[in-house]
Each structure stands twice: as C-alpha cells, then as structure tokens.
Design goal:
Layout lengths: L1 H11 L6 H17 L6 E8 L4 E2 L3 E10 L2 E2 L3 E5 L2 E3 L2 E2 L3 E5 L2 E4 L4 E2 L3 E10 L2 E2 L3 E10 L4 E2 L3 E10 L2 E2 L3 E10 L2 E2 L3 E10 L4 E2 L3 E4 L5 E2 L4 E2 L3 E4 L5 H28 L1 H13 L1 H23 L5 H17 L2 H12 L4 H19 L1 H28 L40 H6 L14 H6 L14
Parallel strand pairs: 1-3, 2-4, 3-5, 3-6, 4-7, 5-8, 6-9, 7-10, 8-11, 9-11, 10-12, 11-13, 12-14, 13-15, 14-16, 15-17, 16-18, 17-19, 18-20, 19-21, 19-22, 20-23, 21-24
Helix pairs in contact: 2-3, 2-8, 3-4, 3-8, 4-5, 4-7, 4-9, 5-6, 5-9, 7-8, 7-9, 8-9
C-alpha cells in the first residue's frame, strides 16, 4: 500500500511543471460536451439572481461580477471578476475569475465548485467536490465539502469538514478541521493543528518536516516524501499559466469591444475565406518584422521601428483572437454571440496547447498567423464598409434575396357590397328620391329641329 501511494505521489506531484495547468484544464474538459447546448449566453455588467427569484435552467454568464441570492435550478458557468453565492445552486458551479469567489454562510451548491479564481472562501455547503486553482483557498469552520478537495495555488486552509480526501499542490497548507479520507499534498509548509482529524493517511511532499500537533488525530500513517526540482518555481509557473489564460480572455474581450466593427469582419473572413486569411497572415508575420528591422537600421525610421515593436507586441497577444473566436463560433453553431464564441474557442485552443506539449506550440503559431491575417482583412473590410458577414448570424436572422419566378405582388382585398333586404330601412336610405334624381330636360321639337344643321351657301348662310 505504501509503495502504491509513493508511486502515485511521485508521478502526480511536482514531476512536471504543467501539472497544475493540466488539472485546471481537466475541469474545463468536463464542460465541453455541454458547451454545444447553449440555450442562451448572458453577457452583462453585473449578473444578479435576486433573493426571491428562481432560475429554472442552466446559466452561462460573462460579467464583471456575479451575485446569486436566489435559486438556480441547474448548473452555472460564469466568467467574471468576482462571484458571491448567498442562495442555492442545485447543480455545479464552474467559474473563471480574477477576483474573489465566496460561498457564503447558508449558501449551498448541490454539485461541485470547479475552475480558477484569485481567492476562494467556502463558508456554506458544497455537496460534492471542490476542484479549484487559486492564490488562497479557505474552508471556514462552518464550511462543508461533501467529497474531495483538490486544489492548486498559494495557500490552503481547511478548518471545516471534508467528506473524503484533500489533495493538491500549494505553497502553504493548514489543516484544523476534519478530513474523512486521506491527505495527499505537495506543499512548502504543512501545519496540522490540534483540532485536526484525519481519518485516513497523511502523505505529503515538502522540503520541511510538517508541524503536526501531538493532539491531532491521524488515524492512518504519516509519510513524508522528498521534493523534486525547484518547488517554488513549479508553483510560480503553474500560477503564471492560469494568469496568462485569464489575461488572454481579458485582452480578447477588450480587443473585440474596441475593434468591434473590424473584429466581427475579421472572424467572418476566417469563416468565409479561410485560405486567403491564412496566406495574408503568413505574409504579414514575415513582412512586418522585416520592415521593423529595416526601419531600425535608419536613424530617421528609428521612432517608427519603436512603434512597430509595440504594435507587434500587442499583435502577439491579441493576434489569435479572430481564429479562436471562429473556432468557438463553429462549436456553438452561430449561437452565444461574438464574446461567447471567443470564450469557448479560447478554452478549446488552450486545451490543445496544454494537453499536447509538442504540438501545442504549432497550435499557437497557427492561431497567431490565421488571426493576424484575419485582423488585416477585417480592417480593410471595415474601411470599405462591408456588411457583417452572414456566417456570424444565426440562420433565423439571414434574409434570402432570391425571389421565386412565379411570385406576384399581392392585390388589395376587395370590399364586398352590402347585402340589402327588399323593403328594409337601408334600402329606403340608399334608394334615391325624386328630388335626388337628375332632372331630364323635356324634349323641345322646335329647338331640336332648328338645331339640325341645314343647307348653306358659299358664304355660310342658310339657303332656306
């Protein structure tokens, strides 16, 4: 048994710097089958479910902040700056946030809490798992996690109740609550307080001996494994991976908002003219750095070269955005809007980069070249005033210009004549009276005879 734990720990902790990234990506991979079933994507400044409200469907949200005070009968997938839950979510909550995620006192999540955030504070109840990457993860004394806690980040504090195992990789770990299973963790510092209860084994990898209070109750064995490589470097690299992904999301949102006219056309150019976009990207990626070098060789062109370097840096960051958005648009089948397609495409793109270490670099290069070419075509199309590409619109919003050959314009409806019964008042009103009838002039024989033209002479005078 000890050999199995030793083997698993040596394989799963600290052996690769990308372990943290793979863990978070695995969480997102669980959601991918459901991404194609987006009924609606909510894009708003603040997402609020009020205390008396009940939302009876899954929620997919992009917002600067989120607050759930009522009930969400389903899953919640949210990309936001912060999230506070004081009500109830019957399903799971998946969050990508750069701020604080709080499950307040009295709040309940019927499923799991997944994703990444700046900090996580669990005061309420989570029926299943916590699988999170954050700088700080705190399970309050009143907090309850029904199954496993798997964390990656800076500091982990377990003061509440965990139904099964505690696993992960952190800088500092403090356990003062109850753990129903094993503790298997790689950490720089491990503290086990006197009130801690571990009903399974304690297996840790650390450069230092754990500070275990003698009064702590550890039912199983306590095993320390040696560290491998630079522990702090691995933690920093893991956090940098998550921060870079969140930074790419923020940069993409800003780029699509600032250049919303060109951005939509750039995405449309990839969907409608993929080969041309890729060729334009290859030419741009090769020609632009060459132009910067040539400008830098001349004293007059040095300021322009400096500006070109700044543009190249920005392009290196936001260059793949159109290609990533086009990928998400295909997955969502023109649903979710431009921002929703970008989020889904970014997740899929990063999945490929993280999960395939060797090919991942080529995936980034392909996305960069394709995206840069699309940006160039989008700027040109926006300047020409081209309409929004139909490929970005749902089929229900596309109006076909084709007119059938046998089509005829509709005629105005005819008003039926009123039905009048004989002898009715309506017939009397419609029947003209003697005064209303036009007066006919009596025949005048004399005048009529005189009016008849007779014979005339050459001067036009009557002969009679």
């Amino acid at each position: 048994m000890w050999f199995v734990k030793h083997y698993l720990s040596s394989r799963q902790t600290l052996s690769k710097p990308r372990y943290f990234a793979l863990g978070v990506v695995a969480v997102l991979a669980v959601l991918l089958p459901s991404l194609t079933t987006f009924a609606a994507l909510v894009t708003t400044d603040r997402y609020i479910v009020r205390e008396d409200d009940t939302v009876a469907e899954d929620q997919y949200v992009i917002a600067t902040s989120g607050q759930i005070e009522g009930i969400v009968d389903g899953d919640v997938t949210i990309f936001s700056g912060s999230l506070t839950i004081t009500g109830e979510v019957t399903g799971s909550v998946t969050v990508l946030s750069v701020g604080n995620v709080t499950v307040a006192d009295g709040a309940k999540i019927g499923g799991s809490l997944l994703g990444s955030a700046g900090s996580v504070h669990v005061v309420g109840t989570i029926d299943r798992d916590v699988f999170i990457g954050a700088a700080s993860i705190v399970i309050d004394p009143t907090g309850v996690v029904g199954r496993d806690v798997i964390v990656f980040g800076g500091a982990l504090t377990v003061s509440g109740d965990v139904g099964r195992d505690v696993r992960g990789r952190t800088m500092r770990t403090n356990i003062s609550g109850t753990v129903g299973g094993d503790v298997d963790i790689a950490t720089q510092n491990l503290d086990i307080d006197r009130s801690a209860v571990v009903e399974g084994d304690l297996l840790y990898r650390s450069p230092r001996e754990a500070d275990i209070d003698p009064s702590a109750q550890i039912v199983g064995t306590v095993t320390r494994l040696p560290t491998r490589g630079n522990f702090i470097y691995g933690i920093i690299l893991s956090l940098a991976t998550i921060v870079s992904f969140l930074g790419f999301l923020v940069a993409g949102f800003v780029a699509l908002w600032l250049f919303r006219t060109s951005g939509s056309r750039a995405v449309g150019s990839i969907l409608t003219k993929p080969l041309r976009s890729f060729l334009v990207g290859i030419v741009t990626v090769i020609a632009f750095p060459a132009a910067i070098v040539l400008l830098a060789l001349t004293l007059v062109g040095l300021p322009l070269a400096a500006i070109g370097v700044l543009i190249a840096g920005v392009g290196f960051i936001i260059g793949p955005v159109p290609a990533v958005t086009a990928l998400g648009n295909r997955v969502l089948v023109n649903r979710g809007g431009l921002f929703g397609a970008f989020v889904v495409g970014a997740v899929l793109w990063r999945l490929g980069i993280w999960l395939i270490p060797v090919v991942g670099g080529f995936l980034y290069l392909i996305g960069l070249i394709w995206g840069v070419g699309a940006w160039m075509m989008g700027f040109v199309a926006a300047r020409r005033g081209d309409p929004t590409p139909p490929a970005l619109l749902p089929a229900s919003l596309i109006v076909k210009d084709e007119v059938p050959e046998d089509w005829e314009p509709p005629l105005a409806p005819k008003r039926p004549a009123p039905q009048v019964e004989p002898g009715s008042e309506l017939e009397l009103e419609l029947k003209p009276t003697a005064q209303q009838r036009p007066q006919e002039a009596p025949p005048d024989e004399a005048s009529s005879e005189d009016d008849q033209p007779g014979e005339t002479d050459s001067w036009g005078l009557p002969t009679n």
